[in-house]
Write a structure and sequence with these properties.
Layout (H helix, E strand, L loop, with lengths): L2 H21 L3 H12 L5 H9 L7 H36 L19 H15 L3 E2 L5 E3 H4 L18 E2 L12 E3 L4 H10 L4 E10 L11 E11 L4 H16 L5 E8 L2 E11 L2 E11 L1 H6 L8 E8 H9 L12 H4 L3
The structure holds adenosine-5'-[phenylalaninyl-phosphate] (FA5).
């Protein structure tokens, strides 16, 4: 027998066997098909094996290899049919997905940063791009850093115990300093200048404390961002440019700002900075040129260097940005509120 004829016969055999096993609908028809193709004596596979003897000797290795493959394919088809019939409805059920993929998934409850923390990170980023690096200071302060060095003398009303959280004598330091929770981040201006020769270009962000009654825009603990720039040729125009860039970057492209004359003991002249939003002017902080008395207090020469400083309320900025109407929402710890940021 010529090799091509033999191979063609094997192909037909596989096709027939697969078709027969696949279409077997019960164990009887499967057994009949088994006998027809795999029967030890008269099966068609056995017959093909016998015919292999008639193939040319030189073609026999190829024929043998193909015969083995054929046998394997027929065996596999037979086994699959057996499993299909044995499993019955159970096998079909197993093949179905164990879950309903159309159901909504279980959402993971991942923690997230508090909106004020997110705001702080963003403000650091904005001011970092303007060349300001971040400085830090303690929340428990002495009167020198919170008042005196900032040109707020002993008899000044801003030092009234009713307006500050003084700590009791138990918390006094070894050198008997009166301590308080800082009421403004301007304390960090002093700490930085005491330890750094000019020029200085820093921001400081953190908590401050005042015994203010909580209402929609006040809280007894809130956050400020302080900015300080000291150099040889600094003007109010630089201050306004920086605050404008800051407001535009954080609040969006359309923000205009204005300065109103004001008073702070540590700046001269002093201003309140407002930004324009929804047809209203909104105060976002105080600012001004650093008072020469402050420069002297930290050992700088007011004839040689000048600078500006500003202090802004972080909660109020964040409130405007997100349309939050009550500052108390930040500190209720209601996850339904916090989850939105
Ligand atoms: C100051 O604290 C000055 N240290 C700012 C300053 C720094 C002026 C450097 C000049 C140079 P003031 O008390 O106005 O200023 O507070 C600044 C901002 O903090 C306010 O504009 C407001 O946005 C915010 N703020 C003040 N009190 C509260 C409060 N109880 N709750 C929430 N935010 C407040």
């Amino acid at each position: 027998m010529a090799l091509p004829d033999f191979l063609k016969q094997l192909d037909d055999l596989v096709a027939d066997a697969v078709q027969a096993f696949d279409s077997a609908s019960d164990s009887e028809s499967l057994e009949a098909a088994r006998i027809e193709f795999l029967g030890a004596k008269k099966g068609r596979l056995k017959a093909a094996q016998k015919q292999m003897g008639g193939v040319d000797k030189s073609d026999r290795p190829v024929a043998g290899k193909r015969f083995n493959e054929t046998k394997k394919q027929i065996d596999v088809a037979f086994k699959a049919a057996g499993e299909r019939l044995a499993g019955g409805t159970q096998a079909v059920a197993k093949a179905e997905p164990q879950f309903d993929p159309t159901l909504p998934g279980t959402s993971l409850r991942i923690g997230r940063l508090h909106p004020i923390t997110q705001t702080i990170e963003e403000l650091k980023d904005i001011m970092g791009r303007l060349g300001f690096s971040v400085a830090d200071g303690p929340e428990i302060e002495d009167e020198w850093h919170n008042f005196e060095a900032l040109n707020i003398p002993r008899e000044h009303p801003a030092r009234d115990p009713l307006d500050n959280f003084y700590l009791t004598t138990a918390q006094r330091t070894a050198d008997d300093k009166t301590l308080l929770l800082r009421s403004q981040t301007s304390t960090v201006q002093i700490r930085v200048m005491e330890n750094t020769p000019p020029p200085v270009r820093i921001i400081s962000l953190g908590r401050v404390y005042r015994p203010d009654t909580a209402d929609a825009t006040h809280y007894p603990m809130f956050h400020q961002i302080e900015g300080l720039l000291i150099d040889t040729h600094v003007t109010m125009a630089d201050l306004k440019s920086v605050l404008r860039l800051f407001a535009v970057s954080y609040l969006g492209g359309d923000v205009h700002i204005r300065f109103r004359p004001s008073f702070f003991p540590f700046t001269e002249p002093s201003v309140e900075a407002d930004y324009h939003w929804d047809d209203q002017w909104i105060e976002f902080g105080g600012a001004g040129m650093v008072d020469p008395n402050v420069l002297r207090a930290v050992g700088y020469d007011p004839e040689a260097v000048v600078g500006f400083a500003f202090g802004l309320g972080i909660e109020r900025l964040c409130m405007r940005r997100h349309g939050i109407t009550d500052i108390r929402e930040f500190y209720k710890n209601d996850v339904r509120f916090l989850h939105q940021f």
